[in-house]
Design a protein that fits this description.
Length: 73
Amino acid sequence: MKTAILHRVYLYGYSRNVLPAWFRRIVARSELHRAWLSGFNGCFIENGTRYGPSNPYGLVVAPTGQGKGFWPE
C-alpha cells in the first residue's frame, strides 16, 4: 500500500504537477516529498542505469579521438 501511494506521488511529480509550497513545507524531508521531487526532476532507473538531471535520457556523448580533432580519424 505504501509503495503504491509513493508511486502515485512520483507519477504526479513526473507529469510536472507542482505541489503547493505550504504542502511541501509540511512533508519536507519525508518519503512522500522525495518521491514527488524525484518524479518532478525526471529521475528514473532503466536497465540499471540512473537517469535524471545530471544524466539525461537520450544524451549521446560523442567519442573523443587521439588526434588533433574531436572525432577519431
